[in-house]
Design goal:
208 residues, alpha/beta, 3-stranded mixed beta sheet, 4 helices, 15% helix
Length: 208
C-alpha cells in the first residue's frame, strides 16, 4: 500500500495555514487546490500572473483563457486578480509568497532540488522554479518516492542539474513524509500501510 496522487495532494494540503499566499508547481502539486481544508483561507498564486486561483474545473467547464504556469486550465474566484508576470515574480522575489509546493525529479539529503530537466531531453526552460525556491518562505516537495525503474529519488546527492541548493524543507512522497534536517532526512510519518522499514529500504539518502 501507498498513497496515490490524490492522497499525496491531500496530505500536502495539510501544510497550508490560514492566510497563506502559496504557489503550486505543476504535476501533483496542482491537485492540492482541490483539498484545501475547511475553515482556512489560502490564496494561490500562479507566476504567469494570477492571484487567487480556484480549484480545477470539472469537465466541460474549462475556460481556455484561464491557465496556470503549467498550461493547465484552472478556475477563477470572485476575488481573483490578474497582472503581468513581472509583478508575479516581484511577489516571489520580494518574499510575499509564504510557501511553494513543487514537484521534483530528485531531492538530496541536504535539501538540494532538481526538478527542471533531464540532460539530453528537450525542455522549455526552468520556468519559475529557480525564483520560487530562492524567494518563498518554505518549500514542500510532492513526488513519487522512486522512479519507474524503482530507484530512489531521495539521494545523498542529486545527479541532475539543480534548481536550488539546500532549499527543500519537507518532502511528501507516496510512501510518507520526511523533513530535511542536519545530517540527512528525518521520517515524520509513513503512508497508510507502509512500514518505516519499507520507507527506509526505498530511500538512498541518509535517514537520521
Amino acid at each position: 500500500m501507498a498513497w496515490d496522487r490524490n492522497q499525496m495532494a491531500a496530505r500536502a494540503a495539510l501544510e497550508l495555514q490560514d492566510g497563506m499566499y502559496v504557489n503550486l508547481g505543476i504535476g501533483i502539486p496542482t491537485l492540492v487546490s482541490n483539498f484545501i481544508p475547511e475553515g482556512i483561507t489560502v490564496t494561490l498564486q500562479s507566476e504567469n500572473g494570477m492571484l487567487g486561483t480556484g480549484p480545477f474545473p470539472v469537465e466541460g467547464d474549462e475556460d481556455a483563457d484561464l491557465i496556470n504556469a503549467g498550461k493547465q486550465t484552472i478556475t477563477e474566484l470572485p476575488q481573483t486578480s490578474y497582472f503581468d508576470s513581472a509583478i508575479a515574480f516581484g511577489m516571489i522575489r520580494g518574499g510575499k509568497i509564504a510557501m511553494a509546493i513543487l514537484g521534483a525529479m530528485e531531492v538530496a539529503e541536504n535539501g538540494d532540488l532538481a526538478n527542471w530537466m533531464i540532460p539530453g531531453k528537450l525542455v522549455k526552460g526552468m520556468g519559475g522554479a529557480m525564483d520560487l525556491v530562492a524567494g518563498v518562505g518554505r518549500v514542500v516537495v510532492v513526488m513519487d518516492h522512486t522512479n519507474k525503474h524503482g530507484d530512489s529519488k531521495l539521494l545523498t546527492a542529486c545527479t541532475l542539474p539543480l534548481t536550488g541548493k539546500a532549499v527543500v524543507d519537507r518532502i511528501i512522497t507516496n510512501l510518507g513524509v520526511l523533513d530535511v534536517v542536519e545530517g540527512g532526512l528525518k521520517i515524520i510519518e509513513t503512508a497508510d500501510g507502509v512500514t518505516e522499514d519499507e520507507l527506509r529500504a526505498a530511500t538512498a539518502a541518509t535517514i537520521v
